[in-house]
Design goal:
The chain is an alpha/beta fold and 181 residues long. 22% of the residues lie in helices and 33% in strands. 30% of the residues are buried.
Length: 181
């Protein structure tokens, strides 16, 4: 089993690149049917979802606008603090009466997503849906699950494909999970 080291931790492969790309294409095909004939406003949640969003939009066929927001929750730690502090980038969005898709890298507790959905809902879009690359159903404590999910994963810490450990590992083409020797 391939393992890598980032800072002081070891990680082993969980989802290989080929499986990731097949799933992203499949998600895009679903969205192409659902949003056919509409202009989709995709809100990419930085930093983690930038790679997933970039790959996803290359397979989409509907007209779209891509927006970027940043939500402050993690800092350099491995686990969320449980409180969302701020969202940057929403003040410039004109999404009133538009179809909105929030693109997340990973949803665990769901607290960040709920905070973000409330902020976006205040801008009065026609609809809000969420797509997440990874979902941790065992950790989820929110009220609304994502409408579209790439992979359900166990409650393990992961890196790669945009996700990091203390700002390292985002460039990895696969998903790696924490590996305890």
């Amino acid at each position: 089993m391939e393992t890598i080291k980032i800072h002081d931790k070891s990680f082993q492969i969980l989802i290989p690149e080929t499986v990731i790309m097949e799933r992203v294409k499949s998600l895009a095909e679903t969205l192409n049917v659902i949003y056919e004939g509409k202009t989709l406003h995709i809100i990419c949640v930085l930093n983690g979802s930038f790679i997933f969003t970039a790959d996803l939009v290359r397979y989409l066929t509907m007209p779209m606008e891509i927006h970027f927001v940043r939500v402050s929750t993690y800092g350099n730690e491995r686990v969320s603090s449980g409180s969302t502090r701020e969202v940057w980038g929403l003040d410039s969005l004109n999404i009133s009466q538009k179809s909105v898709l929030i693109a997340e890298d990973i949803i665990d507790t769901g607290f960040t997503l709920e905070f973000l959905r409330q902020k976006i809902d205040a801008l009065r879009p026609e609809s809000i849906e969420t797509i997440t690359f990874l979902f941790k159903p065992e950790s989820f404590k929110g009220t609304k699950r994502p409408e579209y999910t790439g992979f359900n994963i166990p409650d393990d810490f992961v890196v790669g494909y945009g996700m990091d450990y203390a700002q390292m590992g985002r460039e990895l083409r696969a998903i790696y999970q924490l590996y305890e020797d």
